[in-house]
Each structure stands twice: as C-alpha cells, then as structure tokens.
C-alpha cells in the first residue's frame, strides 16, 4: 500500500504563509501536553536537535504549565496567530484540540500530532506520528507479565486516566491478549484504577490495592507513576509475590528492574517522537510526502509505515535490567 | 468666660504632660495644638462633643497613633510616640471606647492578657490567668464566669472586663474613654467609687464621658474640647453642668419634657402576653399615636429581644401582636417595615451601618424601593435627594452625602441611622438605645427629632438605660426585669418632680416589685 | 473638566494604578515584540481566548462582592458543557439536516439551565444552610466534576452540529462574536451591580450583612440570587468552551480556577466583600491575556508567565497601598467606592 | 473590619468540642461502614499506610491552622513546600554532599524565609493575606522554574539519603508493614504546635491577633513579630513536608504538589477552624485531615469504580458539611446571631 499523504494543498500553502519576514526559515512549534516534566524535557531535546540538524528550520517547543486541554488550546491559538508554518501537538485531549487544529489548517498551517491516532484521517490534522502500533505495544506489555505470573492469578491494572486514548488502547489490547492466551488469569477490577498521573495518588492506590487484594499476582501500570510507585511499595513491604509490568522511563525503572521489583517495563524515546514529528511537519511544509519505508532520520523510525494518516515507527524501547550503567540513563 | 488654668488641687507631681499635640487624618484635623497636664492623684475629665478629638487624644498618649507634632511625657519621661508598648511600659493604661477586647478569648484571658504580656511571660499557665482575673474582678466587686468567651458576655460585663484588664496593671496614668456607656446606675456607682480609690493611690486619671453628672461627681478638673482644640481647663467645683454644656457646645441646652398632645386614643400597636421562651415572658403593651413609651431595665432584661420580635427577627412562641387592631404575624424585617414598624438597632456599628460606605448609601439601604425609577433600577439623583433630606432633617454636621460614615463622629453616625428610619415614615418607631456614646448637643437634637415625630402621630418605643433620657422624652414607661414587665408608669408618674430618681432606683433594684434576681442574661 | 480630572486623580487610585500597570506592560510589549503581535489576527485570537475565561472571572468577581468565593465555577461550567454537548452530540436526539440550529439553541439553553442549577445549589448551601462559601463550593466543585465523570465515564462528548463551532469563529466587523458576548455580559453585569436594587444589596451584603438584614434586605434571597446569576454566567462560559473545542469533557479548564481568582483580586475586588468594579475587571482581564499571549509569542516558559503574574499582582497591590496613603476621606462616586478604613487589620 | 458578629453562643468551648466530637463520630461510623463492606480494611497495616500517606498533609494542616487562627489565609504553602525541597535537593546535588541534614537544613531555611517574606509583604503593605499568598505562590514557583529549571530526579538520580529517609520505620509488625518515622515527626509537631498555640504567650497572641488585630496592637502585642512567626512557621512546616514528600515518593518532581492547597485548607476548615481567625484547635485540624484522607483513600476497599470517585467523595463531604452547619445555623438563630454565612 502506498501510504502517501499530502492530499491537501497544505504543504504549498504553508510555504506561502512563510513569507512573513523570518528570513525564509520554516517555523515549527511543538506543543507538549505540559511543560516542565521530564518526559517533555526529553522531547524538547529531540526538537532542539532537529532544529540544529536543519539550517532552514526553526523548531521550538512551547506548552502549558498544567495538563489542561484548555490551556493547550490557548497555546495553539497563539501559535496560529503568529502564523508559524507548522504546529506539532501532543494533545491532552485530542477531541478538544481538533477544532483549533482544523482552524490552523484552514490558515495554511501544517498540523502534525503525536499520540492522537483518533485524529488521523480527519480534517484537523495532516498526519499523526506514532512510535509504534498501540495494539502491539499493549500486547508487549502484558505478555511478559502473564508469563511471570505463571499464567494464573489475580491481576489489577492502573492507567493514567480512563480518558487517555493511548493508555486505554494498550490496556484493552493487553486484556484481549490475556483473555485469549491466559484464561486462568483473573482481572479483578471492572475497570483499571486511575492515578491522574499523580505520584501520591499512585502511591496510595498501590497501598490500598495490595491490602484489598492480598492474593494479587500481577499488576500492570500504563502510566509512569503507576508502575514506579507500585514497585516502590512492593520494595518497602518486601513483597515478592506480585509481578509488575508497564510503562516507565529508563531512569525510573532502571533500579527497580535491577532489583527485580519491576518485572517488565517498556517505553519509547520522546526525543525521537519530537524529532520525527518535526521532520514530518517539515516535509509537509516543503510539499513533500512521507511514505511507507521512508527513513525519518531517527533510530526506530528508519522504516516507517504510513497507513490511514498515521506514521508509525518501530520505536518501542524495552527496558531491561542492567541495560544502562549506573546513573547513565538517557532520560 | 474664664479661660485661666484651674488651680491644681494638690501639690502632686505632673503625671501626664502632653504639649501642642497635632493630628490630622487624611484632611481632618482631629487635634489642633492641644496641651493637657494631669497631676498624680488627680481626676481630669475630658469632655466635648462627638468628634472633638477626645479619643484621638487618648490614642496618641497611649501610642496607638503617632502625633503629627507635639510631645507627650509621663512622669517626666518623654515618649517617642506611636508605640503602645512604650506607653504601657511608662504606666499608661486605657479603657478604650470600643473596649478592644478579644471576642473569641475567655473572660479570664481577656483580663489577664495585658499583665502577662508586660510581665514578659512566655509560657502561659491557665491557673495563673484565672488567678489574675479573679483578683481584679474581686477588686471591682463583680463575679463573672471566667471560662466563657467574651462574645457570649453582655455588653455591660464586657465593659467590666475591659476595666479589669486596665486595673490588672500597676498603672500610673489611667484613661477611661466613656467607660460607663453600657453600665446601669448601680455599676456606675461602683465604678466611680473605684475611680476615687485609685485616685487616692496616686494615679492620674483621665475620665471621658458624655454624662455630665458623672463628670461632676468625680472630676477635680474638667478639660473641654471643641473641634480638636482645647477650649479650656476648669476646676470642677467652680462649674455646673449648664456651664460645661455651654463651653462644649457654645449654646445652652435644655431638654423639654415631652407631653403627648394627640387625642386619638386607639392603639396602633398592642402586644398581648407575648412570650419567647428564654428571652421574655407575657409582655403586654400598647402604643397609641403620639406615645413615647420608655422601656427600661437592666441590661439583659429582655428589652432588645422584644424589640427584635417586633421587627421579625426573633419569632415569639405565643401571644399576639396587633397593629391598628389587626392581628399580625411578623416574620421578617421586610414585613415589619411593610406594617409600618421601624427599628433603630442597638449596635450602630454592627447592625446599623455600612461603615465603609457613604452616607447616602447607608440612608438608601433600607428603602431602595424609594430611590428606584423603573422597577429595580436605582436613581442616583433620588438617592442623593433622599440623603440630603435626611441629613438636613437630622442636622448631621457633615452635609456631604458622599462622606464615608465610618469617618463621621458617633453622634452624627447615630443621626444617620435614626434618620434612615424616620424617612420611612413608620407608624411605630422602636429606638433601641438611641444615644449611647452621643454627646449632649447631639443628644438634645436627637430628642427634639424624636419628640417632633411623636407629635406628628408616630408611636415611639424608646429603649434606654438612662433614667434622665426616659424622663426627658417619655410619656409612659415600663420597667422590665428578667424578661418580664415589673412596673408600669403613666404620664402622671412621669410628670412628678422626682421621677428620674425614682426610676433610677426602680431599675437598679427591681427587687422592690418582684423577687427577681440581678444576674445579667444574654 | 480639570475639576473632574482632579477628582479622578484623587479618588480612583486603584484604577490609576491598574491602568499604569497596563500601560507599562503594553509599552514593554511594543518594545520587545514585533508589530505582528498587534496585528488583527492576534488580537482576534486573544479576544476569543479571553471570552470563556472572562465569564468565569466575572462569576468569581460577583461571588467575591458578597464576601464569598466560588471554587466550583470551572467544574460547574464543564458539567453544563457536558449537558449541553449531549444535546448536540446526536446521542439522544438524532441530528438531521434541518434541526441543527434548533438543536444548537436547545444545547445552549441546556448549558445555561444546568449552570443555573449548579449555582442554585451553591446558593442554597450558602444562604440556607450557612455553609461558608469556600467550603460549600469546594465540595460542589468535587461533586460537579464527579457527576460529569460518572455520566460520561470521563469520555469526551463530541459535538456533531456544525453551527456550534461556527459560533466561535463568527465575527462582526472583525470582532469575534463571543467577545461581543462577553462585552455585553460585562456591560449588563456592570449595570445590574451598580444601578439595580439587587446589585446594591449585594454590595451592602458584602460590606455588612447584619446591617443589611436590619435594613430589611432579604439577605438570603440576595445571596441565593447572586449564585444563580453566577450559575448563568458559568453556563455561558460552558457554551463558549464547548463551542471552542467542539466537545466537552470533565477536567477541562481546571487550571483556570486559580487564574480567575487572580484576575479578580488584581482588579481590586476585596475577598472579604463589598469592594470591586466590573470596569476594573475588564482592564485586569486584558492585562492578563496580553501578558499570557505575548509570552507565548516570545516562547517564554509558562512558569515565567506565572512568575510575572504573581509579581504583577503584588506590585499592583503595593501600588494601591501607596496610593491609599494619600486618599482623602470622602467617598468618591455613587459607584462602589474603594475607600478603606485606617485600621491595622489586614484581613 | 466589616465582618460582623459571628457565632455568639454561650457554650463556645462546649461547641468547639462539639465539632471535634462530631468529626470523631463521623470518622468512626465511616470506618465501621468500610470495615463491614470489606473486612480487609480493618488491619493495623492499613492504619500504618494511612498514617504515613497522610503525614505530609497533616504537617501542612498544622501550618494552615496557625495561619487561620491568626486571621489570615495562606495558599502559598504547597509552592513553598516544593520550592524548598527542590532547592534542598539541588544543593545536595550541586555540592555532592548527600546528607539528609544538609538537605533538611537548606529546605527549612528556604521555606522559613519564603514564609517570612509573605509576612513582611502582608505587614508592610497591610494587604489581604489571600491576595499576597496567591501572588507569592505564583511568584515563588515561577522563580524556581526560571532560575533552577524543572528537571526531575528519579530514585537513582536524587540524593540517596532522601530515599533512605522515606522508608525509615519506627515500628514493624511483620506482615502488616511498619509505622513510618513520619508519624513520629507529625506527632512531634502536633504537640509542639499545640503547645505553642495553647501554652505560650506567642500562641495566645496569635489567637488575640486573629480575634481582633487592632485590639491586640493596642495591648502592645507585636503584630509584626506574631505574623512573622505564623508565616515563617508555616513555611518551615511546608519545607519539612516538601522534603518528606519527595523522600516518600523517591522522585523529585518540582512541578508536583501545587494545586492541592485548597484541599488542605478544606480539611482544616472542616475541622472547625474559623476562616476569619481566632478559633481553632490542633485536634480539630487533624481530625479534619483524617476525615478527608479517609474519604479519598478507601475507594479501593469499597470497590468503587474510579469513575465514581469524585461523585462519592463530593457527596459525602457535602452531606457532612450540611449536617454540621445546619445545626450551627439553628443554634445561631436562637442566640440572635444575624449573619447568614
Ligand atoms: N482613624 C481615624 N481615621 C480618620 N479619621 C479619624 C480617625 N480617628 C478619628 N478620626 C476623626 O477625628 C475626629 C476626632 O475623633 P475622636 O474619635 O477623637 O472624637 P471623640 O471626641 O472621641 O468623639 P466621641 O465623643 O464620639 O467619642 C473625628 O472627626 C473623627 O472622624
Ligand atoms: N438570626 C437569624 N439569622 C438569619 N435569619 C433569621 C434569623 N432569625 C430569623 N431569621 C429569619 O430567616 C428568614 C430568612 O431571612 P431573609 O430575609 O434573609 O431571607 P429571604 O431571602 O427573604 O428568604 P425567602 O427567600 O424565604 O424569602 C427571615 O424570615 C428571617 O427573619
Ligand atoms: Mg490527561
Ligand atoms: Mg471618643
């Protein structure tokens, strides 16, 4: 399948809009969910290195101070008003940014999203960039856990929020996988618990879950807070009966993996996502396509798939014990 | 007119020497070069109309305010000014006009706090607190529950607490800024006796009051203020109240006793066996057009509670209220006002006025309907007209309707609240303690207005602690005690020569007519 | 004329301080920013951003006039938005070719009604149960977002009627319609607060609620009504939010709560009641929006914006203090005067 | 001061006890209900867990109590907490001295100073405390982010002394977890705060200032010194809490914690502490914290779906407030207190 995009004249229009006295540079603004947390600081590194790699591009990151879709919309509106050439967004709530992104496109601005497959193929965006297939990522998360549980026992899950599209996609894909392959694993709560990406909530959830389910055999956390705090509580209690898996960062999961409190952790490099999203945006501004098989200049994205408006890489990063020498974590 | 210094009664040292004090508050000259000297063992009374600068003088000496210029020294030691601690350390104690108590702290703590602070106490023992409180209370001869918060204590007892707090220290100069406003005759007597004792101990006492008979009783010298300047110092024994009044106001003040002149005797308001458990019992009363019915008694005798019931704020349990012969159930102030009842509340600061707002806003607050044009839309013009009307009828000294009432003197504030009620042309006007803290001149003007209203056919209920006030204004009087009416006096009693004295003793000693007990409630 | 100017100089110190702060800010922007910042497109975008938030701030301001506070403004407007969006989501009422406009109006009405009900509950708790406003609205803040969460499972409620989105983009003579709506609301609120009986009672309540009761004001009804009015504003804010993002979801706009309080106190509203003017609120809103957009344009970190907001708030308050030292002792206008007593109290 | 008469019943002391008693009853009933629904809840380990996770909030509550009693409101304490802790951590990282005492020292110094700065601004310019602390909260945190950045540090990157501090137990019951040293810290400061407020002249001055600031100054109470103490102490407790917080989470995230101040304020107010000053006890404030923590941390035991969290929490909170204040309203009416709110 030839996954070429650029059906819209977005690229050309973008170049036109670029005439506004900025020395012919292509301006790309990346709007993260929130500024100041390590994930997006790492993403900014990717944006910065993209900016440095490309003379004719000025790429920068600017975002809100809290994970609030309303503030993110405001930042995007300000970018539209400045008439940048492209906007890259990691939406807090894809639905909420959709209209403003559509407006951006109507103004001839190229729009690329990351972590918003739901917007792919809509009028709101040109392309969505994913580090991997969310379904696979979810299965990858649950498989080693089921294995470690010996294929049986109680399992509890926790997500950042029930409204997070990607978290729920991983969780549900994982559940389907378990249902099919490990019928003896019992998922004890109707719905995953929720930590709102807050460490203190994740921590007290972990304590309560362990008390309320004394026979728990497995825990899966799709948010960084969920997995890390659950592991921390296991460590504090010296509890070795529960296998754990989920999303994490090298610097957070590293020590727990080394000591065995985390069974399995995986992630993707936000720097790569930032770099590649900017790359895609630049291509579209220049009126060029992104097609299956292209190399987008970053590890894990050297052979991307483009399908239904989604550019998927192969950038899942499995975290393993002893993978990084002490303290030398990339992020 | 004599303006010369009064001869010092004793050869004692000068305890307080304040020279050339000037103080301006954002344009208002509160003190204009005032000098006052008080000797140890002397009671110097300070009198003057509302806003003449008496309290400001006190606050400067006690370090609450810093004077713009001028000096203060206590027993020869000059004070830098503007620091209460310095003044207290020098031996200055004040019973403030507003008492300056702590509502949420207990009686014991309120009394002892002063002492504890200046003893440099760091760790507080409750027993020590109570001990100090008990000692000083004993000195005044009053018993109070030490552990209840001040907010649950009657105003009279609060005044006692404030007095005790000042007495708990070994003061050398004691200021008493209207310490008797809420006290009844009996307590006033006691206080004046204490003043005499303290004087014997060599204290210099500055006593401020609007009640000239008290002043005449304790004063060695009298200092008169007018408009921030000192009119003069006078030896008390060479003066009478008439002369003092003249010095204060610049004219003679006479109270004309009120005689009812209406001939329509059908009552506008009738209370029949009105009862509210714990507040008052079996109150029966009727008011005819032109009546000024005095309601008096000790504090806590239930007068205010009855007034609040008539104003819809304290529903009665049983009994009936009839207005113009029709039985009514008054459930809210609005309804009371619709029925033609107006109330001047007891506390003008807390219940009467919006202190930070202008006079016109205060006046229109009770009858916004009257200053609207289209339904619900206010008219600035009408509001101002109404304010002007009230201000001129009541004779408020500051004629600018935009003046913030908090900046008016007490008497003028009171005129505004009273005038607000008058402008509603009520059938019945209930005045709860209308002249507390109001100077002689303003008092006379207020009396004149009240009587004028009654003459026009309004029924007035006048709640008051002062026998003189009742005597000067009422044609009928009821004395309440412990929630019941214990005495009714009609126009013949009121007209009698010795009425004020008789009333005074009826109030202080209601035991004459009932076996009631003199413990203050509420 | 000169006389009038002098009066303004003497009495309107708070206004002057705020205007001076605004002027300095604009001058600084002019120095540091390209002309593009003042281009119509950017001004339009700022106007749109201000609109939804402006309604919330106005609502908060009204609560503060009575000495209260409404911590539930954002969650109530989101709940209203969810209710309104459900109407136009096609989930309950099928959307056809012809009924788009009617549905949109019905949705808007739903928003306002739900907002009003939320305000009514707040008002009831405050006026009739006497729960302190800060506690009452804190619990309803949690409650309202709880209802929204339970009703939607946290999912976004999409809007499928296109007119809703058009509403935000509509302009009259280049001015966004939603902004005109805000201007209209501010004007009406200003009128109601300053010139009507109800507004006056609200101020009087904030100044001294006991005195208002003795003056025959229906204090409880006034407070209840004021929260209903807040509810209506919050409902309109809900409409604007929904229209802007074409959907509604719990948790949206939460960060606007503290910002609303900030803008209101910056405008000189006294959290203890009785003081505050809609006109000043307009200036404060413009100031805050200007700073936020300008800093975004300069790609400054949002934390830097916070720093500047905080510092600005303190600077303006200190400016007011200094100006107050020279204030004469007359109340200025029939309008809600900002006079302060000389007391030591700093509450 | 336009705030008029507030509660004027006779049994002030009795009534205060009333609030505490009421809270205690609600807490016991609630625990019983959760225990019946899920007996696993009734385990000493659960208690240990809750004590530990509630410790930080309890410390903040003690500070908030002190401020409220003095007649002020503080909304900057969470900002102070995280800023101080972050400065402490950064100091340790920059100097390479991985020592708990150093971090604590730096943090509480910063916290105390920031609190003191609040007091100076409030006092010098006679400004409403809510406004000042709203401004400083924004400014402090903004300044930290601008000057130091917002880099977060994970368990291995942060000072190890903090990681160790977070897991110290003073008592362990095998199979049920342990009682954190945090509990001892909170107990110590609860007693200290109680002692200061109730038994020292400083504490009584705080009540006096909260009750009537003008009167307090006329009595010669040093208003500035009192406020300086109140806000500095709150800053101090905040900083301590900040360090405990990052230690416990084993993760230093300088953009966390902010936004929780209203809940802490609510907990303290639920505990019967009066918003306008002069009234409040340590016991009440702590019971308020216990109650709110219970509500938020029993959902797993109750088996409630996460979607129902807020609805449940909001309703229970509201219901208890209604009962509490409706009774007080009725009492006030009889006592002829005329304020509506
Ligand atoms: N803190 C203040 N700010 C502004 N004006 C003040 C202040 N204190 C007093 N004034 C003004 O100074 C003048 C003198 O007031 P002061 O209180 O000294 O009068 P007073 O003689 O004690 O009156 P009263 O008999 O009513 O107690 C008045 O005009 C008053 O309004
Ligand atoms: N101590 C009190 N404090 C408050 N209200 C009281 C008190 N005592 C009695 N009330 C009565 O409570 C009722 C409510 O007062 P208010 O006038 O403020 O309410 P409202 O707004 O008129 O109420 P509604 O909407 O029922 O007409 C009135 O009837 C008032 O008189
Ligand atoms: Mg989210
Ligand atoms: Mg005086």
Automatic annotation (TrEMBL), chain B:
CDD domains, A to Z: ABC_Carb_Monos_I (cd03216), ABC_Carb_Monos_II (cd03215)
Coiled-coil spans in chain: none
Record has Ubl conjugation as a keyword: no
One Pfam family per UniProt: ABC_tran
Gene3D superfamilies, sorted: P-loop containing nucleotide triphosphate hydrolases
Annotated ABC transporter domain residues: 16-252, 259-507
Source organism superkingdom: Bacteria
Alphabetically ordered keywords of this record: ATP-binding, Cell membrane, Membrane, Nucleotide-binding, Repeat, Sugar transport, Translocase, Transport
Molecular function in Gene Ontology: ATP binding
InterPro entries linked to this entry: AAA+_ATPase, ABC_carbohydrate_import_ATPase, ABC_transporter-like_ATP-bd, ABC_transporter-like_CS, P-loop_NTPase
Keyword ATP-binding listed: yes
Xref: PANTHER family: CARBOHYDRATE TRANSPORT ATP-BINDING PROTEIN MG119-RELATED (PTHR43790), XYLOSE IMPORT ATP-BINDING PROTEIN XYLG (PTHR43790:SF1)
Protein name according to UniProt: Sugar ABC transporter ATP-binding protein
Organism: Georgenia deserti
Lineage: Bacteria, Bacillati, Actinomycetota, Actinomycetes, Micrococcales
Automatic annotation (TrEMBL), chain C:
Major place of residence: membrane
Highest taxon in the source lineage: Bacteria
Keyword Cell inner membrane found: yes
Localization of this protein: Cell membrane
Membrane topology classification: Multi-pass membrane protein
Keyword check for Iron: no
Protein name stated in the entry: ABC transporter permease
Organism: Georgenia deserti
Lineage per the UniProt record: Bacteria, Bacillati, Actinomycetota, Actinomycetes, Micrococcales
TrEMBL record, chain D:
Keyword Cell membrane: yes
Membrane topology field: Multi-pass membrane protein
Pfam families named among the record's database cross-references: BPD_transp_2
The keyword Nucleus is assigned to this record: no
Cellular localisation: Cell membrane
Keyword annotations: Cell inner membrane, Cell membrane, Membrane, Transmembrane, Transmembrane helix, Transport
First-listed, main subcellular location of the protein, grouped into a coarse class: membrane
Chain ranges passing through the membrane: 21-42, 54-87, 99-125, 179-197, 228-245, 251-270, 282-302, 308-326
UniProt protein name: ABC transporter permease
Organism: Georgenia deserti
């Amino acid at each position: 399948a030839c996954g070429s995009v650029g059906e819209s004249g977005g690229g050309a229009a973008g170049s036109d809009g670029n005439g506004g006295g900025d020395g012919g540079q292509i301006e790309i603004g990346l709007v993260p969910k929130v500024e100041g947390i390590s994930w997006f600081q790492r993403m900014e590194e990717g944006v910065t290195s993209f900016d440095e790699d490309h003379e004719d591009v000025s790429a920068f990151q600017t975002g809100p101070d809290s994970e609030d879709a309303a503030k993110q919309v405001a930042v995007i509106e300000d970018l539209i008003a400045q008439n940048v050439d492209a906007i890259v967004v990691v939406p807090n709530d894809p639905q909420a940014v959709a209209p403003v992104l559509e407006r951006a496109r109507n103004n001839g601005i190229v729009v690329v999203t990351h972590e918003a497959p739901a917007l792919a193929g809509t009028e709101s965006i040109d392309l969505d960039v994913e580090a991997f297939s969310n379904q696979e990522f979810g299965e990858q998360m649950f498989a080693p856990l089921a294995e470690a549980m010996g294929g049986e026992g109680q399992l509890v899950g926790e997500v950042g929020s029930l409204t997070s599209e990607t978290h729920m996609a991983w969780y549900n894909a994982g559940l389907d996988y378990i249902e099919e392959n490990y019928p003896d694993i019992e998922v004890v709560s109707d719905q995953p618990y929720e930590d709102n990406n807050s460490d203190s909530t994740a921590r007290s959830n972990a304590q309560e879950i362990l008390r309320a389910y004394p026979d728990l055999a497995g825990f899966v956390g799709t948010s960084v807070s969920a997995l890390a705090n659950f592991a921390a509580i296991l460590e504090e209690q010296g509890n070795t009966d529960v296998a754990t898996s989920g999303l994490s960062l090298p610097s957070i999961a590293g020590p727990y993996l080394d000591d065995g409190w985390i069974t399995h952790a995986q992630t993707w490099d936000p720097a790569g996502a930032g770099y590649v999203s900017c790359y895609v945006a630049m291509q579209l501004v220049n009126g060029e396509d992104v097609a299956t098989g292209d190399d987008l200049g970053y590890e894990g994205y050297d052979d991307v798939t483009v399908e239904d408006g989604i550019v998927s890489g192969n950038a899942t990063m499995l975290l393993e014990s002893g993978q990084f020498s002490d303290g030398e974590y990339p992020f | 007119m004599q303006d010369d210094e009064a001869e010092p009664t004793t050869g004692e040292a000068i305890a307080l020497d304040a020279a050339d004090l000037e103080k301006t508050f954002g344009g208002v000259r509160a003190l204009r070069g005032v000098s006052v000297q008080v000797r140890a063992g002397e009671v110097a009374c300070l009198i003057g109309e509302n806003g003449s600068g008496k309290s400001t003088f006190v606050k400067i000496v006690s370090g609450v305010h810093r004077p713009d210029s001028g000096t203060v020294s206590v027993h020869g030691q000059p004070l830098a000014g503007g620091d209460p601690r310095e003044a207290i350390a020098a031996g200055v104690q004040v019973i403030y006009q507003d008492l300056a108590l702590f509502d949420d702290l207990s009686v014991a703590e309120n009394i002892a706090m002063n002492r504890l602070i200046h003893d440099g106490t760091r760790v507080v023992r409750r027993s020590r607190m109570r001990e100090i409180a008990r000692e000083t209370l004993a000195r005044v001869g009053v018993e109070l529950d030490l552990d209840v918060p001040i907010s649950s204590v009657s105003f009279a007892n609060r005044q006692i607490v404030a007095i005790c707090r000042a007495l708990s220290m070994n003061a050398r100069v004691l200021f008493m800024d209207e310490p008797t406003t809420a006290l009844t005759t009996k307590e006033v007597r006691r206080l004046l006796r204490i003043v005499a004792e303290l004087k014997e101990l060599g204290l210099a006492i500055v006593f401020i009051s609007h009640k000239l008979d008290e002043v005449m009783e304790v004063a060695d010298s009298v200092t008169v203020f007018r408009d921030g300047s000192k009119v003069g110092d006078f030896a008390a024994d060479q003066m009478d109240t008439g002369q003092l009044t003249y010095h204060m106001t610049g004219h003679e003040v006479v109270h004309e006793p009120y005689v009812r002149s209406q001939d329509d005797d059908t009552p506008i308001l009738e209370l029949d066996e009105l009862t509210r458990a714990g507040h008052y019992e079996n109150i029966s009363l009727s008011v005819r057009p032109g009546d000024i019915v005095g309601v008096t008694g000790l504090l806590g005798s239930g007068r205010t509670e009855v007034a609040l019931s008539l104003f819809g704020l304290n529903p009665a349990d049983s009994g009936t209220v009839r207005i113009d012969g029709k039985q009514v159930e008054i459930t809210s102030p609005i309804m009371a006002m619709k029925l033609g009842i107006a109330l001047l509340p007891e506390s003008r600061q807390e219940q009467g006025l919006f202190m930070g707002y202008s006079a016109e806003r205060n006046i229109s607050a009770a009858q916004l309907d009257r200053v609207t044009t289209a339904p619900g839309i206010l008219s600035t013009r009408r509001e101002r007209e109404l304010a002007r009307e009230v201000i001129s009828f009541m004779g408020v000294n500051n004629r600018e309707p935009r003046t913030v009432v908090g900046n008016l003197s007490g008497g003028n504030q009171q005129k505004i609240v009273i005038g607000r009620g008058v402008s509603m042309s009520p059938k019945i006007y209930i005045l709860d303690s209308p002249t507390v803290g109001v100077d002689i001149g303003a008092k006379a003007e207020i009396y004149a207005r009240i009587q004028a209203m009654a003459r026009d056919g309004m029924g007035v209920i006048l709640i008051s602690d002062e026998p003189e006030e009742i005597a000067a204004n009422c044609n009928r009087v009821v004395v309440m005690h412990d929630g019941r009416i214990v005495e009714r006096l009609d126009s013949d009693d009121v007209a009698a020569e010795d009425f004020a004295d008789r009333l005074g003793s009826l109030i202080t000693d209601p035991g004459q007519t009932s076996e009631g007990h003199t413990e203050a409630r509420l | 004329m000169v006389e009038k100017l002098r009066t303004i100089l003497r009495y309107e110190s708070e206004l002057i301080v705020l205007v001076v702060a605004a002027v300095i800010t604009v001058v600084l922007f002019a120095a540091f920013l390209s002309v593009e910042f003042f281009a119509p497109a950017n001004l339009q975008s700022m106007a749109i951003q201000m609109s939804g938030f402006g309604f919330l701030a106005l609502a908060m301001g009204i609560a503060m006039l009575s000495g209260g506070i409404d911590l539930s403004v954002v969650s109530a407007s989101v709940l209203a938005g969810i209710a309104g969006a459900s109407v136009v989501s096609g989930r309950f009422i099928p959307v056809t070719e012809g009924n788009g406009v009617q549905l949109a109006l019905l949705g808007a009405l739903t928003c306002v009604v739900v907002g009003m009900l939320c305000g009514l509950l707040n008002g009831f708790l405050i006026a009739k149960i006497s729960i302190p406003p800060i506690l009452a609205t804190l619990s309803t803040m949690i409650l309202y977002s709880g209802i929204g969460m339970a009703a939607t499972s946290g999912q976004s409620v999409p809007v499928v009627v296109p007119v809703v989105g058009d509403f935000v983009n509509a302009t009259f003579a280049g001015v966004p319609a939603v902004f005109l709506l805000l201007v209209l609301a501010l004007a009406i609120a200003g009128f109601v607060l300053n010139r009507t009986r109800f507004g006056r009672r609200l101020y009087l309540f904030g100044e001294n609620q006991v005195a208002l009761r003795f003056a025959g004001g229906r204090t409880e009804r006034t407070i209840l009504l004021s929260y209903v009015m807040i509810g209506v504003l919050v409902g309109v804010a809900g409409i604007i939010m929904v229209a802007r993002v074409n959907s509604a979801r719990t948790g949206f706009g939460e960060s606007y709560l503290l910002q609303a309080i900030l803008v209101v106190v910056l405008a000189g509203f006294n959290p203890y009641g009785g003081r505050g003017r809609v006109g000043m609120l307009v200036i404060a809103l413009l100031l805050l929006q200007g700073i936020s957009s300008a800093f975004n344009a300069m790609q400054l970190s949002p934390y830097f914006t916070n720093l500047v907001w905080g510092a600005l708030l303190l600077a303006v308050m200190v400016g007011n203090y200094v100006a107050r030292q020279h204030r004469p002792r007359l109340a200025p206008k029939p309008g809600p005067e900002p006079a302060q007593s000389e007391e030591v109290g700093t509450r | 001061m336009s705030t008029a008469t507030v509660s004027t019943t006779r049994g002030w002391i009795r009534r205060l006890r009333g609030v505490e008693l009421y809270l205690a009853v609600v807490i016991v009933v609630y625990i019983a209900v959760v225990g019946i629904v899920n007996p696993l809840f009734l385990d000493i380990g659960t208690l240990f867990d809750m004590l530990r996770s509630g410790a930080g909030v309890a410390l903040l509550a003690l500070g908030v109590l002190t401020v409220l009693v003095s007649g002020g409101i503080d909304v900057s304490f969470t900002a102070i907490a995280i800023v101080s802790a972050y400065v402490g951590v950064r100091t340790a990282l920059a100097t390479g001295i991985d020592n708990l005492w150093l971090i604590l020292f730096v943090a509480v110094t910063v916290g105390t100073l920031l609190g003191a700065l609040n007091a100076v601004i409030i006092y010098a310019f006679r400004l409403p405390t809510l406004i000042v602390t709203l401004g400083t909260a924004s400014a402090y945190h903004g300044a930290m982010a601008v000057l130091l950045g917002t880099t977060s540090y994970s368990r291995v990157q942060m000072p190890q002394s903090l990681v160790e501090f977070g897991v110290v137990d003073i008592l362990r019951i095998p199979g049920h977890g342990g009682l954190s040293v945090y509990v001892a810290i909170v107990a110590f400061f609860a007693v200290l705060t109680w002692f200061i407020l109730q038994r020292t002249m400083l504490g009584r001055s705080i009540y006096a200032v909260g009750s009537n600031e003008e009167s307090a100054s006329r009595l010669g109470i040093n208003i500035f010194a009192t406020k300086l103490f109140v806000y500095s102490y709150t800053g101090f407790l905040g900083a301590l809490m900040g360090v405990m917080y990052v230690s416990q989470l084993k993760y230093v995230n300088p953009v966390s914690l902010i936004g929780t101040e209203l809940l802490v304020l609510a907990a303290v107010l639920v505990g019967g502490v009066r918003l306008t000053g002069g009234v409040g006890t340590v016991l009440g404030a702590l019971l308020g914290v216990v109650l709110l923590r219970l509500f938020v941390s029993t959902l797993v035991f109750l088996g409630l779906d996460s979607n129902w969290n807020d609805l449940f929490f909001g309703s229970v909170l509201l219901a208890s407030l209604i009962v509490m204040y409706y009774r007080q309203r009725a009492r006030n009416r009889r006592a002829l207190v005329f304020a509506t709110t």
